[in-house]
Amino acid sequence: MSNEQSMRRVTAIRNGTVIDHVPSGQALRVLEMLGIAGETSVPVSLVMNVPSKKLGSKDIIKVEDRELTQSELDRLALVAPDAHVAIIRAYVVAEKLSINLGEEVVNVVRCTFSNCITTNAREPLAHRLRVVSRDPLHLRCHYCGRPQDLDELVKNAL
Amino acid sequence: MTGLITMDDLTNEEILSILDDAERLLPVARGELYLPLLQGRIMGNLFFEPSTRTRMSFETAMKRLGGDVINLGDVKTSSVVKGETLFDTIQMVDGYTDIIAMRHPRQGAAQYAQDAARVPILNGGDGAGNHPTQTMLDLFTIRQAHGRLDGLKVVLAGDLRYGRTVHSLSHALTRFGCELIFASPTLLQMPAEIVSDLREHGATVTETEDLYGSIEDADVVYMTRIQKERFADEDEYARCAGAYKLHAKHLGDVKGDMIIMHPLPRVDEIHPSVDETRHARYFEQAFNGVVARMALLCRLLGVTVPADVNAQGGVF
What we know:
A: 17% helix; B: alpha/beta
């Protein structure tokens, strides 16, 4: 099945964001990380586990009437670093956004360790996680050095 | 090098060079020689949780070198209790001092303080995280006894799960190619992520519950206290605590130059009968905290320890 056919499983959107090439089965985690899960006033469509030439299978998310911001892209980098993000305006791709997972993730999520110094919300320094490896993704807190559980991290988005 | 937060801040060459400095400073640490290398310098002692040896040895180290010390004092009567952030406390003390030694109950606090400060931070323990100055004095004690650090067989015993001392030390010993034996009750085993991390770095690690069967060909036996406060169940604690009681009678077949270390305080894990044997090193180890910290203070403040301290030092 071609990519175009996969995309047609849900209708085209007039305005909004399409997140393609999400690793298979990760769409719900992406929505949670973006804070789009549950109560949201915008229509969201997603298809999961559709065939993909590049990934074997993949998930696709379409969010209507909402364009992802840079900070949302930074959060996306933690759960779907190779996803393709397109901003749709009047049914056409107006912009393609790139996701950059640098060597450090700054002020995107909080360290998951309950005894880390950064759990005091009043401490003013930036929340910093070091990218130890990209595939599979391993992160460590810059301050306490603890490895981060990605499932837990999703709940700690700033 | 800014401060010393974890042992990763030091290369093996730097570790050995600091231990050399410490060796030369021994007569100063003993009070036999006056060498005011740090005269006019002020250290801030920020202990946000209780400490006896670490706090006192930092203070002694600074004063033996002619420097001065200001203390945070009791946390309960400081601005911390009023809700001051660590960031603000550090901003203030940073302005008063040339270097800060600190201990904090939260993990990562030392790195956080270093990012907030202009002056170097010496990590004297952050939660269950790192305790690199303890590791330096441990390495000093081991090298003093064996003349080297590389290729030794080291047994680490007791509470390996929560003890930050053994975590930092096992990483450092791995860098010097030591063989590690972790002897602990199952409940208090070395965390799996640390064991796999050590193995990834080339360590030979054996895990066992049998302490007494492990010490025969060891060069170092490093005992730790089994901490009562970690157990919810008193009976479980009693079983674990009773598992290791090193007595002089257990030392009949050990190597002649094997040393027994302990970060102290001890409870029952080393019987007083061991104190009189040639293997006991824990009190020297506690004293070595002063000399190791003297060398670190000099290094972090950019002060060179003279090759011949006797030529430069004065007698009392």
